[in-house]
DNA helicase
Amino acid sequence: MDIKHFSTTQLDLLAAELAADLTATQELLSTLPPPTLAKNGLAILNLLPSSTRTGLGGKTILDLDYDSAVYGPKGAEVPTSSSGIRSGDIVRIEQQPAGSATKWVKTELKKGGVEGVVQRVNEKGISIVLGESDEEAVDKLLAEGKKLWVVKAGNEVVFRKMELAMRRLGEIAEAGQESRLMRVLFGHDAPSAVQEVEGLQFLDDGLNESQREAVRFALGSPDVALIHGPPGTGKTQTFIEVIRQLTGQGKRVLVCGPSNISVDNIVLRLPPSLPAVRIGHPARLLPNVLARSLEVLTRTSEEAQIVNDVRKEVDEKLGQLMMKGKGRLKGSARKEGWRDVRELRKEFRVREAKCVTDLVGRAKVVLATLHGGGARQLRDQKFDVVIIDEASQALEAQCWIPLMNASKLILAGDHLQLPPTVKTETNSRSDKSKSKSAKDTKPPEAPPASTSKYPPPTTLSTTLFSRLLAIYGPSIKRLLNTQYRMHTQIMTYPSVSLYNNELIAAPSVATHLLKDLPHVEDTDDTSVPLIFYDTQGGDYPESTDAPAAPGKKVNLLAESTSNPNEALLCAHHLRLLLDAGVKEEEIAIITPYSAQVSLLTNLIRSQHPAVEIGTVDGFQGREKEVVILSLVRSNDKGEIGFLGEKRRLNVAVTRARRCLVVIGDGETLSREKGWVKDWVAFMEENAEVRFTGLDEIQ
Ligand SMILES: Nc1ncnc2c1ncn2[C@@H]1O[C@H](COP(=O)(O)OP(=O)(O)OP(=O)(O)O)[C@@H](O)[C@H]1O
């Protein structure tokens, strides 16, 4: 594949994606009034500033409380949809439009607002970590004493980093300075033969044979190795062994993943004795990872002493500036105060940079998201191996951020689960193939002038993982074949239909059922691994009343099919499970449609707060003892929408450990030939099929 051509194609695709992202956000903001945005989890209204403090990394944290006049004491009446804003999200803080909510027609974000990252949302309000340069803007925002609202913002920074990486890649190719790894990753040079690792002693003796083979392969491949990990097969466990072996050989490793959680899952399982540093915004890290966070270490480690004195001074100055009432600094004193803060911050940054270089330099393992892999703290750092987890969920341009100077790459992923979410499925040159079907991975269009055998992908959803498989075939990967999650019966259909029937259920899970949990009774609902509520017959029609503005297609709300009676059936089965002793936190209810999530949340959340309710896409990588899957689609035309994407359905049916409960209209689902139809046929054969009328559940 022509690398320069690849880079220009990616730049086109990224530009289109960013435009789509911005348009979608803009469209929502300009077409929907704030209360509707809030209802859809995109905004929180009626907030009052309560305090500011200096958080980790010297950043300012702004606490905003729910206005008790609107929401009642302790925010008891805050709508559940506000949980759409979570810690780690980027938000804008704005002055709330004046007047009553009903008069707000549309919103234009003003220049006066500021952006920040949500640290936490709780019953009191929301805490937001601000960018360093924003204090004065915040000062202005607070000075007016008005109510504030926060609204989710798009993340342009992420795109800019990918663009930078692609531009750099193009320049390198143009100058003919590609590294050996680059040549291999684009099919110019074949990967070198796998070498045997002499005297390899496994540190984890629990690894199964396929995991051991994957470790041997990863260590012995000089250039690139793929670990193919179907659901629950222990990719992370395998990676931990690979990391420990590499560091044992004296190598330095950079470990990345597309999301913070993917990286944190690895951090949590690294042996405490391994010198490792996690780079990333503390507000986005799991609490039990913070001890390894670079930002935290710049406060708590020995090296941090030189930073702490200056931090204290900044804090004191900020404290004076944030004082309310009589003590509030005014006029030139206030200006001077901010000047001092800026000066102190400069000093702070110099000292912090030194501390950071020392801390990162000592680490044998550095962990960051793919975007974090391009962080300034890593600019001069050299690594022997780059490891990317969940690579089949990462955009390829993202993967290149940490790869620019790499010489060896190990990827883990599963191209048969969902690829990264992409708003534009096609590039600006070819037109519309809106369907989010398995066609995503269709062969790219013919190359222009060059006669390259592998033209650049025409959609961002083609991942580096799947591209390498397309170039080199299965010899470039090793399959982890033993899964530690699902009862054999839950595993069988995905194994047969997608994984060449190669999956094995580990003995510890092969026959496990809900009734085997010590606190669960043996009932009809806890003694089978697969239940299929077939709703065919018309009692459970889908509904598509999308609240989009006339003439406008609002992306987020467009996929708004729901099925109210199916939601009642979910609640019915949930009651059966809870009555049998299954704990709320062992249960998830998932569905492909966000409107069904809202419906289910409103129906169930207040009574059963620990039951997880979410979309299939959002549940990738997760598991629960029992999963209720609400398929929603029920219509005369046999339309199944994006359920037809078998990678989505694969994710949906592989989340449950002991019991999978499927609720769907067997007739609608069986109209169209393909994976869904075959799966329904399998369910009819192998699951306990129930036909439950509406009168039985109300
Ligand atoms: N060799 C093994 N022996 C026993 N249990 C194992 C083994 N390998 C993995 N597991 C268990 O299987 C589960 C899944 O492992 P892990 O989290 O490493 O998998 P994963 O492939 O990263 O998961 P996911 O599919 O959710 O991304 C964990 O509970 C882990 O302890």
Q: What stands out?
A: The longest helix spans residues 331-362. The first strand starts at residue 43 and ends at 54. Residues 206-208, 211, 229, 231-237, 484, 621 surround adenosine-5'-triphosphate (CB under 6 Å).
